[in-house]
Amino acid sequence: MATCPRCKGPLTDDHHCPKRQSLVVLEIIAAALGGGFVGLLLLAAFDPRGQIADMDVVTFVVGGAIAVGINRLIRS
User: Fold this and answer.
1) Model pTM score
2) How many CA atoms lie within 13 A of 13 on its CB side?
């Protein structure tokens, strides 16, 4: 059986090389940053006067975690 020259896996008709680890890490970071910013935008939309104090960091972290979770769920 032939082997893939890049990943050394079996070369079948439906072969796809796995993504490089650095690209997966960049994808996770981009999803976390995007989710964090969406979380901040939602906080600003639902609390325009800023009555919820000290929630910026929490909103950013929770939004990023949700975005990474959705991204990993979709990609797996």
Assistant:
1) 0.72
2) 0
